[in-house]
Amino acid sequence: MEITLFFFSQINMCESKEKTFFKLIHGSGKEETSKEAKIRAKEKRNRLSLLVQKPEFHEDTFSSRSGHLAKETRVSPEEAVKWGESFDKLLSHRDGLETFTRFLKTEFSEENIEFWIACEDFKKSKGPQQIHLKAKAIYEKFIKTDAPKEVNLDFHTKEVITKSITQPTLHSFDAAQSRVYQLMEQDSYARFLKSDIYLDLIEGRPQRPTNLRRRSRSFTCNEFQDVQSDVAIWL
């Protein structure tokens, strides 16, 4: 009888030790898991902090835009004066096109000049495949409803493009390009000639950061894969 009781007491002691050991191990695991979670959370916060500090995450902020807009443009006052003779002369000059684009960015309407440039590049397409690829890229970015940089077009013009986009030609965007060109010439170009960006150039003053305006009421509003362009950038 005594031996039996002693045997059961030993078993109970072993079970108690096992439970205690299990609690210690289990608790340690929880503690370790908690520490690992905290470390991971801290690392995540650090990564996010680094990402937020990268310039590409601030392309639309005032500071980065101002820095870009303040970039010196190497153009003589005499050449800049010629840009005021006509809108066509402005766009036909590389520095004029770049300067006008910077001005449109201050008004958040750069999609118009980007579309115009894309259309000019599209007209140089060679072969059905390139025409199709570029036409689709332009349509997806500028024409379709709620496109990333949708330009302001009347219903008829947009409808014609939409119906013909499956079989595009080099003239598919002619009407739309003409419409956008007129909007820029009649609206943005007039303000550009009165802007600090332009006046500084014709008077030979250093370029300076430009205050941002609200988007012009005249304008309502990934990268192009497998599309080779003759233009350095579709801005």
The oligomeric state of the chains shown is single chain
Radius of gyration, whole Å: 32 Å
Give the count of helical stretches.
10
- Proportion of β residues? under 5%
Shape descriptor reads globular
Report low-confidence residues grouped into runs of 5 or more. Answer: 1-8, 20-32, 46-70, 214-229
List keywords for this structure.
mainly alpha, 235 residues, 64% helix
Provide a descriptive summary of the structure in words.
This protein is mainly α. It has 10 helices and no strands. It has helices spanning 2-53, 62-69, 77-83, 87-92, 94-106, 111-122, 128-143, 155-164, 174-192, 196-202. Helix 6 (111-122) runs antiparallel to helix 7 (128-143) and helix 6 packs across helix 9 (174-192). The protein is globular and about 50 Å long.
Give a short overview.
This protein has 10 helices and no strands. The protein is mostly helical and 235 residues long.
Please describe the topology of this protein.
Layout: H1 2-53, H2 62-69, H3 77-83, H4 87-92, H5 94-106, H6 111-122, H7 128-143, H8 155-164, H9 174-192, H10 196-202
Helix pairs in contact: 6-7, 6-9
